[in-house]
Amino acid sequence: MEFSSKLLENAVNEISQLPGIGKRTALRLVLHLLRQPESQTFHLVNALQDLRTEIKHCNSCHNISDTEICDICANPNRQQEIICVVEDIRDVMAIESTGQFKGLYHVLGGKISPLDGIGPHNLTIASLVEKVKEGKVREIIFALSSTMEGDTTNFYIYKQIESYEIKTSTIARGISVGDELEYADEVTLGRSIINRVPFENSLKSS
């Protein structure tokens, strides 16, 4: 792809590094920005800069937040003793959109995947185990995607906390095996939360 401007080429190269965006799509986006009022481009730049410099992670659940403690963890109306374990913020958003879950979350930041070099120490599993040790958690709900990595992560966490007086459950398999939570429709995902089953049952069936 030949460019008439080095500035244009640099912008296209940067945007094309985003997931799912090739050079042609990046060029279309850059040309669109050039056609917009200058102020709109500056708003975008400022929003991205603020995102990188101001964004925080909740000290309690590790969700992306504007404050040290996110709005969900700070909400006194949430069931503090029930924790739903998810991979990332996209899963929190997916479950919240169902309106069926009133507990708290714990964001792992990924799944155990030896092939990708991701082990338990790369995730926030240790802080989850600490919450259980404190004795304030009544139930842990495993809501990771039904993949080999998700099941491995669930099992690892289960072995870390099985000696404690705590209920462990997993979302019902209304979510197809191999599916990612964020792509499930709200009704199916909501029912999977409500109809969750004891985690031990999933071990017997696997």
Detail the topology: elements first, then pairings:
Elements: H1 6-15, H2 23-35, H3 38-54, E1 56-57, E2 64-65, H4 71-74, E3 79-86, H5 89-96, E4 103-107, H6 125-133, E5 139-142, H7 148-161, E6 167-170, H8 186-194, E7 197-198, H9 199-205
Parallel strand pairs: 3-4, 3-5, 5-6
Antiparallel strand pairs: 1-2, 6-7
Helix pairs in contact: 1-2
Shape: elongated
Estimated helix fraction: 40-55%
Mean pLDDT: 88
Number of domains: 2
- Order of strands in the sheet with most strands: 4-3-5-6-7
What amount of the residues lies in strands? 5-15%
* Helix-strand pattern: HHHEEHEHEHEHEHEH
Q: Please give the alpha-carbon distance between the first and last residues.
A: 50 Å
Tally of DSSP β-strands: 7
The largest pleated sheet is described as: 5 strands, mixed
CATH topology category name of the largest domain: Dna Topoisomerase Vi A Subunit, Chain: A, domain 2
Structural class: alpha/beta
Question: What's the CATH first level of the largest domain?
Answer: Alpha Beta
Radius of gyration: 21 Å
Q: How many distinct helices?
A: 9
Architecture (CATH level 2) name of the largest domain:
3-Layer(aba) Sandwich
Low-confidence stretches: none
Q: What brief labels describe this structure?
A:
elongated, five-stranded mixed sheet, Helicase, Ruva Protein, domain 3, Dna Topoisomerase Vi A Subunit, Chain: A, domain 2, alpha/beta, 206 residues, 7 strands, two-stranded antiparallel sheet
Can you offer a commentary on this structure?
By secondary structure, the protein is of the alpha/beta class. The chain is built from 9 helices and 7 strands, in the order αααββαβαβαβαβαβα. A 5-stranded mixed sheet has the order 4-3-5-6-7. The protein starts with 5 loop residues before the first helix and ends with a helix.
